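job 3f2a | input accepted
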Amino acid sequence: VNLTDGDMACTGYMGSGAVSPAGYDTTVTFILTEPSSITWMWTNLSEALSLEIFSDHGEVHPSPGLHYYTSGTTIPAYVENDTVSVSEGIRYVLEGWEGTGSAAGSDTTSRVNITIRENSTLTWLWKRQYRFTVEAVLELGRPHPSYGTHWYDEGTEIEGFNNLADRDYVCLGYDGFGSLNDGIDTFFVVTLLEPSGVEWLWIPSDSAVVLQVNSDFGEPYPSTGPHYFRIGTEIEAYVEDTIVGDTLTRHTLQGWYGRGSVPAEGDSTSITFEIEEYSVITWNWLTEHYISLTYSGCGSYTPAQSGEGWYEERSEANILSLIHI
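job 3f2a | predicted structure (325 res):
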């Protein structure tokens, strides 16, 4: 039925038989299985009070939109289901509600009784969540998040990790999907912006060898620490050439030292090799500090100064400052 008709407003209905006994909407759905009736309730629009319902998701009662009631009516407002799936891996979860007028306030519940005495609003609040799946052909180690399905709020930063080895198996890293890219580490950090997941990769330990990466600075690939690789894997290792600690300190790459399948030494920022045995790559850095020269208390004289610049850590610096009078 229409919400209003001339100077009258519909405040709901009374029902019998297959129709629910009472309702506060201007629509009603039922299956006719017996003699039934609907009596629409009307009041003068000038005497009616409004309750406007807002909800972007779910089945809520009263339904979203504008409703009219007589003063003093108590309306049971509620959400049918507090979790609503909208597509594969995406859902909305009720956070609660907030209101104005006779519904003034807020709460985290899915139900509230409103005794209407003034024009009011009620807004149901929802948050978006994404599914994050953790899996493996062999469910080894003790991963975090654990194996299975998890749900997180949109924008959540997940710090995941797993064991490097478990019994006679070693972890080569992981395959990721959604917001997570593939990786060769046993840890990851991802900000969840879509349905996502990780598959941990395990192989028998006798099929793998270790590459130990050492670096005091930068973000080398592979990262600092031990990594397992399948025997015969071609690895391209690399790192930045300069790391600026602050405006007065810098670290400059001098090259690398290697053991095992890694060549003994080199002066480049990258190296490609095929790993066949336990191997080590150590990135070698030179740390320098900048000495800045200033002066004060010299009146109108400008001192002759020398020695400003970059110096290797623990080296001697020759600083000179002269005033000719």
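job 3f2a | The chain has a mean pLDDT of 95.
job 3f2a | closed
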